Amino acid sequence: MSTSQLAERAGAPGKVNLFFAAGPPRPDGYHDVASLYCAVSTGETVRATLTRGAGTTVGVAAVPGSLVAQQLDRGTFSLDTVPTDGSNLAVRAAEAVLARFPPLVGGLHLQIDKAVPVAGGMGGGSADAAAALAAVNRLAARVSGEPALDDDALLELAAGLGADVPFALTGGAAVGTGTGARLRPVAVGAPLHLVLVAAEAGLPTPAVYAELDRLRADEDVPPPRLPEGLVERLGAGTAEELAPLLANDLQSAALSLAPQLEPVLAAGADAGALASFVSGSGPTVAHLVADAAAAAALADVLRGQGAPALAVRAP
Ligand code: ATP
């Protein structure tokens, strides 16, 4: 087999935070959080190919029909905004894996198929990193004949790349504590139905945290914790029972920086959504609805109004 045929592909989901509480800023600048992560049925794929060159190259394409493809169609986004150098989280993930194997003879190409909006609060870059960890791990093991890294080793590398990367590697639903990287998987009784609405411009996560700290400067911020009954309702309750417990500390900060999200949230209430919330640090908005038919109908209406919208299951 020629080296150009050696390739491995892996996928990783985007996420929403059904609940997100952030504590006060720590001395190291990070925030302790209490997060209920839930994977969504739209996500990223990374194909890692061994090349005859040297170093790591990156290609990026949009998944047809995805939020990213809709943003491209509307001219509100360009794939050029995704870094293709060593600052791409997928490249950092690949390098972290390769460092654990004998040196590669040849180079690496990472082809990223993007579905998750960039800087959208859905952990797109983290999903690219998780998919790259899995794909490059399998490729490096095949090429070297060494055993692949086990799940624990990959999770450790993931935590070193970013707070959301471990969850992108595991998927499903999980409570995240510490910076979000310490995970406890939780059960989901029945998949939730969401409509995701992407914004025209991304929101950098550090700016949203800075705005949160500014808005709460005079408050005595308590340590973050999940509300009583939240995990139980996700495991055994209905979407109607879950809806009142959903909350996101970052939402007020995201709205302060991007007030144009107010009508996007209000559109959900007008359409009968059970809850509407900003995903993570935003600006993607998620509307929780009762079933798949309601999600498809709401996504159609919102797309008709010109917004990139997608009906998804979670997880
Ligand atoms: P999170 O919710 O995890 O905080 P996000 O989903 O809001 O993140 P990302 O799309 O992960 O945001 O990326 C944020 C920034 O990271 C981008 O603006 C870009 O400069 C940089 N970046 C690095 N690697 C990637 C990648 N693979 N895909 C997209 N952006 C990346």
Automatic annotation (TrEMBL):
Q: Where does ATP bind?
A: 117-127
- Annotated active site residues, numbered on this chain, are 15, 164
Q: What keywords appear on the UniProt entry? A: ATP-binding, Isoprene biosynthesis, Kinase, Nucleotide-binding, Transferase
**Would the keyword Transferase be found if you checked this record's keyword annotation?**
yes
Q: Which residues form the GHMP kinase C-terminal domain?
A: 235-304
Domain GHMP kinase N-terminal, by residue range, is 88-172
Q: In which pathway does it act?
A: Isoprenoid biosynthesis; isopentenyl diphosphate biosynthesis via DXP pathway; isopentenyl diphosphate from 1-deoxy-D-xylulose 5-phosphate: step 3/6
Top-level lineage group: Bacteria
Q: Which Pfam families match?
A: GHMP_kinases_C, GHMP_kinases_N
User: Per the record, what are the reactions this protein catalyses?
Assistant: 4-CDP-2-C-methyl-D-erythritol + ATP = 4-CDP-2-C-methyl-D-erythritol 2-phosphate + ADP + H(+)
Transmembrane intervals: none
* InterPro entries named in the record: GHMP_kinase_C_dom (IPR013750), GHMP_kinase_C_sf (IPR036554), GHMP_kinase_N_dom (IPR006204), IspE (IPR004424), Ribosomal_Su5_D2-typ_SF (IPR020568), Ribsml_uS5_D2-typ_fold_subgr (IPR014721)
**Signal peptide positions (record):** none
E.C. designation(s)? 2.7.1.148
What top-level class of enzyme does the UniProt entry assign?
Answer: transferase
Q: Name one GO molecular function term.
A: kinase activity
The similarity annotation says: Belongs to the GHMP kinase family. IspE subfamily.
Give the function comment from the record: Catalyzes the phosphorylation of the position 2 hydroxy group of 4-diphosphocytidyl-2C-methyl-D-erythritol.
Q: What is this protein called?
A: 4-diphosphocytidyl-2-C-methyl-D-erythritol kinase
Give the lineage: Bacteria, Bacillati, Actinomycetota, Actinomycetes, Micrococcales
